[in-house]
Amino acid sequence: MRKYLDAKVIHETKHMTRVEWLEARGAGIGRSDASSVLGFSPYRSSISVYLEKVDYVNGIKPNLS
């Protein structure tokens, strides 16, 4: 029996530029957002992640620099 599940590849990042990669990364909840969403991060709340993602979807992109 396998101990870990295989990850589902959503975007092939090998040939993406940095800006393309950052845009793809911002479009969903990644590994770094998961602990905040679940309430385990002392630095960010689930509300802050939600607001970042909603703003991103509405066309207000965060500063990627």
Description:
- The chain has 65 residues and is mostly helical.
- It has a domain at 31-65.
- The protein is 43% helix and 0% strand.
- The chain has 3 helices and no strands.
- The chain has helices spanning 18-26, 31-37, 46-57.
- The longest helix has 12 residues, at 46-57.
- The chain is flat.
- The chain starts with 17 loop residues before the first helix and ends in an 8-residue tail after the last helix.
- The model has no long low-confidence stretch (mean pLDDT 81).
Task: Give a short summary of the structure.
It contains three helices and no strands. The chain is mainly α.
Return residue spans where pLDDT drops below 50 for at least 5 consecutive residues.
Answer: none
The amount of helix comes to 40-55%
On the 0 to 100 scale, the average pLDDT is 81
The 3D shape can be described as flat
Radius of gyration: 14 Å
Taking the alpha carbons of the first and last residues, their distance comes to: 43 Å
Which structural class do the helices and strands define? mainly alpha
Annotation field: number of helices: 3
Strand content range: under 5%
Give a quick account of the main beta sheet: strands, pairing sense, barrel closure: none
DSSP E strands, number: 0
Q: Which series of helices and strands comes N to C?
A: HHH
